[in-house]
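Handoff note, outgoing to incoming analyst
You'll be picking up this chain. Sequence as last confirmed:
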Amino acid sequence: MAAECKNVALAVLSLWSLISLIVIVVWATSPDRKSSVTCRAELRDATEQMEGAKVVCAKNQVALEEQLEEARQELGHQSAEILLLLGRLNATNATLEECRQENVALNGNISVLHQRVEQLRQAEANLTARISLQEEHIEVLQQNLTQASHRAESLSSLKAAAENHMQAAQSATRACRSSEEFLQKKLLKCKEGPEATPKPQKEPSSSTSSPSGVPALALLTCSALLLMT
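Most recent structure output, in case you need it:
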């Protein structure tokens, strides 16, 4: 921008000098030209103006060069700042790329975690179903255990009753055997009695009939007790 300003200023000065020369030439060749003294005076004035213009142009050129130098320095500073900003921008882009890659990796991990959570939910559902089945099985086993306990109690009661019944039967059997032995002894005595002491003709019928009736009653009693057992 400073170089363009300098070129514009130089072009303006050149154009102004060219216009001044054209004016001088036109004035010198005009038909009603003035006297040489006036012309010299005017030429001197024009020359002085030209010199002043040159001085002003030189000052302006120096100022423009100074501005150009300042603009170059400012451009250098701006270039350095641009390079610094470019470095920061590159670092930021690199950081953004790393963040993007990390984001991709995190998204992948999130997907894996979602799958793992879904698997754990499925496993939890399966375990819940298995626990329900186990609880039902436990209830069935408890019911069976209760029934088995009742059966055991019933069997124990039946066993106790059977033992008591067996003891009663054994006692009845012993009583029957005792009665049988007593009756057999009595029967033997009854058989031996008529041989030792003979009686009249009518008596044996009555004596033999009574002993034979007693053993028959005893045998019936023992048979009834055995059938009860």
